[in-house]
Write a structure and sequence with these properties.
The protein has about 550 residues and is α+β, with helices and mostly antiparallel strands. It is about 30% helix and about 25% strand. The protein has 16 helices and 29 strands. The strands form eight sheets. It has a seven-stranded mixed sheet, with helices on both faces. Strand 9 and strand 10 form a beta hairpin. It is globular, with a radius of gyration of 27 Å. It starts with 16 loop residues before the first helix and ends with a helix. The N terminus is likely disordered. The structure holds adenosine-5'-triphosphate (ATP). Adenosine-5'-triphosphate binds next to strand 16, strand 19, strand 22 and helix 12.
Length: about 550
């Protein structure tokens, strides 16, 4: 196990996921699915504001990648076409793609509590107090495997956040420093200083326990549920695809799968698109839609759920150009997330190490993840999108399994070949979560609103609100007229209830960038008060200029 010295420290405490989840429920962004039946683990429903936010993200992606994509590395416009394929495809699809054989996670059971978790999502916490910090690296490593705690988390950063959020886990120790660790290599190890009630100081270390360690030393890894040694089973492979049956009989002959990724629906239609749309390689096919994975441990709000949405492009290019396009897409995709409001500090590109590469990417130039620093991975990062070189793996496999001829005929070269495929594969649901995390800003100093959601105006579920200051004296009529004018172009909210301060606070939590209030002065001089969400600053503007004001700031 590596024992590198800490490379980076940070004192920025992560935002609280509990508060964000509560706000999402209170303001109608996201609700637990089947809530009146106590919920169903791994499934979520989008409320009115969440639906708008998700639609805005989806539409921005479709617009910027399909309708009006960026120019290619040579300045030529890209050609990208959309499809919308069935969720259930012929079961051979998933044999050809490798999912039946290889889309597995290692699952471990606690034989006493009967609980289950993913072996590659286990973090051991070594807690050293008093005399232990001066132990040598080797001694610490030895002791690491008799830890007091294990936590389920896929990165040490995520485990650190679990400890910070759950004070009972650490009791009676107190963490006296921020967690520090290798931000460039966040999966490895994190360290923080601790103190016990007698003032003895020490350290806590968090490190990911690799699957092989469970396999080789099952007696020395405590269960995360009971802390007991020797109660964990060896990891078993568990296929993540949801099975169902097509037709009236439910035998093995009728088995079908809910798609675990949208990509295969693109490969199945690659020939149809080529034959009908007069495109030439290089070109892309895009799809947005639902995907289903029977995740062993769905966690972290909508980050890892069992039903989610993806936005995927398969970019078909000549094999010798794969590297050029791979680099191009890495750059384009990172910049795109920035353009819709994610900050540079919270984004990083991380190249997969060889042992992480998916089966199809092994021969190609690799896989880059666009990673976002979510509150629960802080100070580490979690995957938001993967840009992979899938080589010609999928087309070759489908040709072999289906017998259809899937090679491309290049007229200029007078040659048949399988194009290589570069795949930017983004999570729409994870993108929504990143936007929510980025926007979520506690505002203890502000009167009225406890939080502001400062979405990029292009993403905001409600773009502006129109309020009559009071619900009388001719104000509602003027406000209503302005509302009717604006709603033809923008997502506008009209609200007459409660004090104006409460209405502003509601809009701050919903992330509405601008509010316009009709007051007594409006009736005298045709000006309205406009209020800006991020600063709470107010000013007056002529009612006739409101539409132009919004066009300047939001577009349209
Ligand atoms: P992870 O390692 O987090 O399980 P992955 O590498 O298996 O993800 P891909 O197969 O590359 O993910 O899927 C592409 C994208 O789909 C991911 O970057 C992520 O945004 C999204 N995604 C994958 N699994 C889930 C899930 N269970 N819930 C929500 N989004 C997901």
């Amino acid at each position: 196990m590596s024992q590198n010295p800490p490379a980076d420290t940070t004192d920025n405490p992560a935002k609280s996921m509990d508060e964000l989840v509560a706000l999402c429920k209170r303001r109608g962004f996201i609700f637990p699915a089947s809530e009146i039946y106590d919920g169903i683990n791994g499934f979520w429903d989008y409320g009115p504001l969440g639906t708008e936010l998700k639609n805005n993200l989806r539409d921005a992606w479709w617009n910027d990648m399909v309708k009006s994509p960026p120019a290619g590395p040579d300045g030529e416009p890209l050609s990208i076409l959309g499809v919308d394929s069935a969720i259930i495809q012929h079961p051979k699809t998933w044999a050809a793609s490798g999912h039946v054989e290889g889309f597995n996670d290692p699952m471990v059971d606690d034989t006493e509590t009967k609980q289950r978790f993913r072996a590659d999502q286990l973090v051991g916490a070594w807690i050293g107090i008093g005399d232990r910090p001066e132990l040598s690296a080797e001694e610490r490593e030895e002791r690491f495997f008799s830890p007091d705690r294990t936590i389920i988390a896929s990165t040490a950063g995520e485990a650190a956040q679990t400890l910070l959020d759950d004070k009972k886990l650490l009791k009676p120790l107190r963490i006296t420093s921020p967690f520090r660790g290798h931000l460039r290599d966040p999966k490895r190890i994190l360290i923080a200083d601790i103190e016990d009630p007698n003032g003895n100081r020490g350290q806590i270390q968090l490190e990911l326990i690799p699957v092989d360690d469970i396999r080789n030393q099952p007696d020395q890894i405590p269960s995360p549920y009971s802390s007991k040694m020797g109660v964990l089973t060896e990891p078993r492979q568990f296929n993540l695809m949801f099975r169902t049956f097509v037709g009236a009989t439910s035998g093995e002959d009728n088995v079908a799968y809910l798609r675990p990724e949208t990509a295969q629906g693109i490969f199945l239609n690659y020939k149809n698109v080529l034959d009908t749309m007069r495109v030439k390689v290089p070109f892309g096919i895009a799809q947005i839609g639902k995907a289903f994975r029977n995740e062993v441990t769905p966690r972290n709000f909508i980050f890892r759920s069992r039903e989610f949405e993806q936005m995927e492009i398969e970019w078909f290019c000549p094999p010798e150009d794969a590297r050029k396009w791979y680099e191009f897409w890495c750059e384009v995709r990172k910049n795109w997330w920035k353009s819709i409001g994610l900050t540079d500090a919270n984004l990083q590109m991380r190249e997969h190490e060889n042992d992480e590469l998916a089966h199809y990417a092994k021969q190609g130039c690799g896989c880059f993840d666009v990673e976002y620093r979510f509150p629960f991975t802080y100070p580490g990062y979690g995957e938001l999108e993967g840009v992979a070189d899938r080589t010609d793996f999928d087309l070759r496999q489908h040709e072999e399994y289906s017998g259809a001829k899937l090679k491309y005929f290049d007229q200029e070269r007078n040659e048949h070949y399988f194009p290589y495929v570069i795949e930017p594969s983004a999570g729409l649901s994870r993108g929504v979560l990143a936007l929510l995390c980025e926007a979520f800003t506690p505002t203890p100093e502000r009167k009225g609103s406890k939080y502001v959601m400062n979405f990029h105006p292009r993403m905001a579920p409600i773009q502006c609100a129109v309020f009559p200051l009071v619900n009388k004296d001719g104000m509602p009529e003027v406000a209503r007229k302005l509302y009717d004018d604006l709603r033809r172009k923008y997502a506008v909210q009209f609200d007459v209830k409660q004090s104006i301060g409460k209405r502003y606070a509601r809009m701050d939590e919903g992330g509405t960038p601008y509010c316009f209030t009709i007051d007594s002065e409006t009736l005298e001089n045709n000006t309205v008060t406009w209020r800006e969400r991020d600063t709470a600053a107010q000013d007056r503007i002529s009612i006739d200029r409101v539409a132009a004001f919004l066009a300047d700031r939001i577009g349209g």
